[in-house]
Design a protein that fits this description.
The chain is α+β, with helices and mostly antiparallel strands and about 120 residues long. The protein is built from two helices and ten strands, in the order αβββββαβββββ. The N terminus is likely disordered.
């Protein structure tokens, strides 16, 4: 076995079982998000679970955030996660450091309080 392969194998064994990545739940309701401030670790994979508790459709629009992140799995279209009433979705990504605005793109929802912030440090 070559020395570099041997070192890589030793590092994997020393690390032990793979650590589970963090999961953050974002609840959408009429007319708000919980939490309103989402804090994430820069460069660390995270799974965001979006749960729409409302009977109506809502979205989680964070164009700059999603465009700067590396999306590993899940459906994000045009910087948005759209959910019908009662629907949920999972998005796994690696976020980039920054402060990002979030809002619901449906008419008047942002004005009614459906907005927030993502802080990645």
């Amino acid at each position: 076995m070559r020395p570099t392969l041997l070192l890589a194998a030793a590092a994997l064994l020393a690390a032990g079982p793979a650590a589970a990545q963090p999961v953050q739940t974002v609840t959408l309701y009429s007319h708000g998000y919980a939490p309103t401030v989402l804090r994430l670790a820069a460069g660390q994979p995270v799974t965001l679970v979006f749960v729409n508790q409302a009977g109506k459709s809502h979205d989680f629009t964070a164009r700059r955030f999603f465009h700067s992140a590396q999306i590993l799995s899940g459906r994000v279209y045009g910087g948005e996660v759209n959910l019908r009433g009662g629907q949920s979705a999972r998005v796994t990504l690696i976020p980039r450091a920054g402060r990002y605005p979030v809002h619901c793109g449906y008419p008047f929802h942002k004005m009614l309080g459906m907005r927030g912030t993502i802080i990645v440090q």
